[in-house]
Design a protein that fits this description.
Length: 305
């Protein structure tokens, strides 16, 4: 199965050039069963990365373009009266896919953003009093533009916490951008991408990730990291138990991708910025964008042993 994981990574890297670290983190997030938030400027390849991941993992894919006039029914679906039968028939919305791309999620109003909350947390949606299960597996990859750009609505902390990881792709290196300019358009490559994993194999890998061994000393290290956010004055608030579980789940999936059956501190350190950066805020920073500084402080100051 390790060879198939390597094949998945290689296939995605053929389309998304020069972003090997971010592709590995995105795959880590999905193997851990979490949802992914990608924050970056338009045109950086966020949508291409999402679509390619869906293709190699063999997942059905739907894209929802979030705009200021988007309504919850546009996401979840609605019931339409059928004159022939005299009954209402439910028409499912694009949320009923295995991988859903919520594109530019912070351009929608908070009411529409919140339509994803139950889906991301419970794997189901309640529409018109009826609870409907979502596909299994179910992943949300949301993209958002930087808050400095006009027409954006910041995601509340309650929704940010639903995302296991947050990534930023950033500008490509010169060599990767040169290859991008000399090669075919990335969208033309997508039809050539074939599924490498099926649903059974993906489920088996997620189960294997949960079973990766984490020693008591490793768990104590995670607890020291979390406790520091709760006790040090520069943190506006501490990490929740959900964040503790997210750190460990991501570290286990990272170890699985590397090919180990146990977690080491370097695994925790590799995933920590992506797992907790969006969950932290400096007490003295009203913009809420100082999470990265706090993560670096944790990595520097909290002892491994």
């Amino acid at each position: 199965m390790g060879r198939k994981l390597d094949a998945c990574l290689n296939s995605v890297n053929e389309v998304v050039l020069g972003k090997e670290a971010q592709v590995r983190l995105a795959m880590t997030c999905l193997l851990a069963g979490g949802h992914l938030l990608i924050e970056d400027l338009p045109g950086m390849g966020k949508t291409t990365l999402s679509h390619t991941l869906a293709k190699v993992l063999g997942l059905s894919f739907q894209r929802i373009q979030f705009t200021s006039d988007l309504l919850p029914g546009d996401i979840l679906g609605t019931s339409v009266f059928d004159r022939d039968t005299g009954q209402f028939t439910f028409h499912p919305g694009p949320i009923f896919a295995e991988l859903v791309l919520a594109d530019e999620i912070n351009r929608a109003t908070p009411k529409s953003q919140s339509a994803l909350l139950e889906a991301m947390e419970e794997g189901q949606v309640t529409i018109e009093g009826a609870t409907r299960p979502l596909p299994d597996p179910f992943f949300v990859i949301a993209t958002q533009n930087p808050f400095s750009q006009g027409g954006t609505f910041a995601l509340p902390e309650s929704q940010l916490d639903r995302f296991l990881m947050r990534l930023s792709l950033g500008y490509p290196a010169k060599a990767a951008e040169k290859a991008l300019l000399q090669g075919p358009p990335r969208r033309e490559l997508l039809p050539r991408i074939h599924a490498i994993l099926n649903h059974t194999e993906l489920a088996a890998l997620q189960t294997e990730a949960r079973q990766i061994r984490a020693s008591e000393a490793l768990i104590d290290y995670v607890l020291r990291l979390v406790d520091a956010t709760r006790s040090q004055a520069q943190f506006a608030w501490g990490l929740s138990p959900r964040a503790s579980l997210a750190i460990l789940a991501a570290a286990r999936a990272w170890a699985l991708l590397i090919g180990r059956d146990y977690v080491i501190p370097e695994d925790v350190q590799a995933v920590l910025p992506s797992v907790i950066g969006h969950r932290l805020r400096e007490r003295s920073d009203p913009t809420g964008q100082g999470g990265g500084v706090l993560v670096q402080w944790l990595l520097r100051e909290v002892p491994v042993l």
